[in-house]
Design brief:
Length: 365
């Protein structure tokens, strides 16, 4: 290459350097450290093919749907809408620690706060109240009048030596499962406790987490400031894993703490995405949300266990493609052809009926 060629190459490199300096290239997201971004996935509700993702945190209100990408087990989903949480129906499960580790003054203040919560609930909200200690008990099933609810709460007493916190959450999810959930309905739990769990031989924190994720229930925690700090820290870590958040309180300011929890519950953005099919796997799958504006990724469990009514097609149900334990004797028939009893050897009748319903009958309804 001659001198002229070398000069041309040098000039081109200098020009490119100047252009780069004048117009620097930035990443697609904001230059904000991910650990400082206050955005969390509260819960995920799947009614295939729709999936609703409830997004909380102080920065959730500034979300831009064009900068959000969602994947389910690595498969990209289509964004449909992003709207602030409004008047959607919701079930709130309240859990009160009635163990003797709760101070009497704190326990009475908690009862008063619960009464205020019941009296201030909205019409589209269903509220159920449970207590836990040595055992798990339902106090309110949501059908009581306000006077009946207040009377039952006023009659509560501390009477337990133990605090079976995780067992209580596990039993609460079993009740939630029995209630069924045909349409989208947000479900949250608020637990008032001193943060300790001294149960032995019952549900662990991981078992409770799995049950909560399966039912799509986020837990908001209210830990008494009088509790042991180590227990409060562990409790807070557990709460954040469910998608909720925790606050601390004492007898004098429990109303303010509960109001902060209610504000967090209200400050939610609802992102609706569409799956590529109506497949129901009855398994937990990983849902990934990428917030491009912050270069931030959040993950959550998504349990694809139910189709929406509008997406079902009774006449087009292809039973040969389903993992059935029984099938119609012929298409359109109301009689069912069962395999030999050896298939269910060792199963209880309840397990057989439940499996047939979930895997054979329900998907075709």
């Amino acid at each position: 290459m001659g001198k002229r060629g070398k000069w041309k190459k040098t000039l081109i490199l200098m020009l490119l350097f100047c252009l780069t300096a004048a117009f620097p290239v930035h990443a697609s997201g904001q230059d904000v450290p991910s650990e400082t971004v206050d955005v969390r996935i509260e819960q995920v509700q799947a009614r295939m093919p729709q999936i609703r993702i409830y997004i909380g945190g102080s920065q959730s209100s500034s979300l831009d749907i064009s900068n959000v990408e969602v994947y389910l087990d690595g498969n990209a989903l289509e964004n449909e809408s992003l709207v602030p949480y409004g008047q959607e129906e919701m079930t709130c499960y309240l859990l009160l620690d009635r163990s003797l580790s709760m101070k009497e003054e704190d326990f009475e203040a908690a009862k008063e706060a619960l009464i205020s919560f019941i009296q201030g609930k909205k019409g589209e909200e269903a509220v159920k109240l449970f207590t836990f200690g040595d055992s798990f008990e339902m106090v309110l099933d949501g059908k009581e009048t306000e006077e009946e609810a207040v009377s039952k709460i006023e009659g509560l007493v501390r009477d337990s030596q133990n605090t079976q916190l995780f067992e209580a959450l596990k039993q609460m999810t079993e009740i939630a499962e029995q209630e069924g959930n045909e349409s989208f309905r947000r479900r949250i739990a608020i637990i008032i406790t001193d943060g300790s769990d001294d149960s032995l031989g019952v549900s662990t924190s991981q078992e409770a987490l799995k049950s909560l994720a399966t039912q799509g229930i986020a837990v908001y925690g209210m830990a008494s400031a009088e509790g042991e700090q180590e227990s409060i820290n562990r409790f807070g870590e557990f709460i954040r894993q469910t998608g909720g958040m925790m606050d601390t309180w004492n007898a004098a300011d429990i109303d303010e703490a509960l109001q902060r929890i209610k504000d967090e519950i209200a400050n939610i953005q609802v992102l609706t995405v569409l799956g590529t099919d109506n497949r129901v796997s009855y398994e937990m799958e990983e849902l990934t949300v990428e917030f491009k504006q912050w270069n931030l990724t959040r993950t959550a469990g998504c349990f694809r266990w139910r189709r929406s009514r509008s997406s079902r097609n009774p006449t087009g149900c292809r039973t040969e493609n389903l993992p059935l334990l029984c099938r119609p004797a012929r298409r359109g028939s109301r009689s069912w052809q069962l395999p030999s009893a050896n298939r269910w050897k060792g199963w209880s009748s309840r397990e057989i009926i439940s499996s047939i319903w979930r895997k054979s009958i329900w998907p075709c309804l």
